[in-house]
Design a protein that fits this description.
Order of helices and strands: EHEEEEEEEEEEHHEHHHEEEEEEHEH
CATH architecture of the largest domain: Alpha-Beta Complex
CATH topology of the largest domain: Naphthalene 1,2-dioxygenase Alpha Subunit, Chain A, domain 1
Structural class: alpha+beta
CATH superfamily of the largest domain: Naphthalene 1,2-dioxygenase Alpha Subunit, Chain A, domain 1
Number of helices: 8
Distance between the termini: 29 Å
Oligomer: single chain
CATH class of the largest domain: Alpha Beta
Strand order of the largest sheet: 2-11-10-5-4-3-6
Strand content: 25-35%
Number of domains: 2
């Protein structure tokens, strides 16, 4: 076993570091913004932010998914104000500029004699791709395709029921006074399971748990086996932490998908979606248990964040035997920040 030094405490607390992370990491990676069920019909949209940039994703009348910066080209007003909804036209609420669902400018009141070029003054596009019922957006035109970015997650997910065959059950949303990296450090290791997640740990067949960092896709893979206590055979599952901040919990009976969004140095938001196999009738209990595990992770991460900001702690050490996933996560982070 070898010991590896952790990241310094200041990177979890410094606003200037957060600004660099937005530019060097989140503006260059794919971010999960919706699931297909939210965008099922033409005109359905969701709004969100990536790296501080307001965007929206829209299902067009032609069935295509498109993304745009949520910025009118006239005076920078947002076009869509709700977090989700239905729209037939893209009309700016400030001065009434009108765009079609491909982003082209259709009408600019007061500029009828100016002959504005509809392509030049159209909305700025954002890349959008969908995989396994999950909709991602990316600000960087140079980034790889979504499936290339996912890497070996694609064949791993193929071992489980497609999300489209499961029944969507619900979502949770939490804001936390925790830096996204503190939460990532925690989510990439199983060292804490027996101490923080006693109920979850009791369900796992310990000798069948394996944690491996995977370079093709930059993610940490947890292979687990659940003893459900119902007399049936143990059930396989895979937990995934995809750098920088997307989490997936896949099994033969359910799928839980999280997106962590940094809100500032030491602040984050987590969206969580849950799907269950159609024959399950324990949805409320399943959502409650998933939320319990999330709250346990958030509680310890919040306490860690307070100590990181307090000033006594600078660096710690990571165990190559017990924390290989966190070592990989911090290395991927350092490489991205140095690029």
């Amino acid at each position: 076993m070898t010991a590896v030094e952790t990241l310094p405490a200041r990177v979890y607390c410094d606003p200037s570091v957060f600004a660099e992370e937005q530019r060097r990491i989140f503006a260059q990676h794919w971010m999960l913004v919706a699931h297909e069920g939210q965008l099922a019909e033409p005109g359905r949209f969701v709004t969100t932010e990536i790296a501080g940039q307001p965007i929206f994703v829209l299902r067009g009348r032609d069935g295509a998914l498109r993304g745009f910066h949520n910025v009118c080209r006239h005076r920078a007003s947002p076009l869509l104000l709700a977090s989700t909804g239905q729209c037939s036209v893209l009309r700016c609420p400030y001065h009434g500029w009108l765009y079609d669902q491909t982003g082209a400018l259709k009408k600019a009141p007061g500029f009828e004699d100016a002959a504005l070029d509809p392509d030049r003054w159209g909305l700025w596009p954002v890349r959008v791709e969908s995989w396994n019922e999950l909709v991602f957006a990316c600000l960087d035109d140079r980034a790889p395709t979504l499936t290339d970015w996912l890497g070996d997650i694609v064949p791993i997910a193929a071992q489980y029921p497609p999300i489209g065959t499961l029944r969507y059950f619900g979502e949770t949303l939490h804001d936390a006074p925790t830096d996204w990296k503190a939460y990532g450090d925690n989510s990439c290791e199983g060292y804490h399971l027996g101490h923080v997640h006693r109920d979850l740990s009791a369900m796992l067949v310990k000798e069948n748990t394996r944690i491996v960092p995977i370079e093709n896709g930059q993610f940490v893979r947890f292979d687990v086996t659940y003893d459900l206590g119902d007399g049936g055979p143990p059930a396989p599952g895979t937990w995934i932490y995809k750098f920088p901040a997307t989490l997936m919990v896949l099994s033969t009976r359910s799928a839980t998908i999280d997106q962590v969004t940094p809100l500032g140095a030491g602040r984050m938001r987590i969206f969580r979606w849950l799907w269950l196999s159609p024959e399950r009738n324990d949805g409320e209990a399943a959502l409650g248990f998933a939320d319990q595990v999330l709250r346990e992770d958030m509680a310890i991460s919040n306490l860690i964040q307070r100590n990181l900001a307090a000033g006594m702690y600078d660096r710690g050490v990571l165990s190559s035997e017990r924390e290989p996933g966190t070592i990989a996560f911090q290395r991927w982070y350092s490489e991205a920040m140095a690029a």
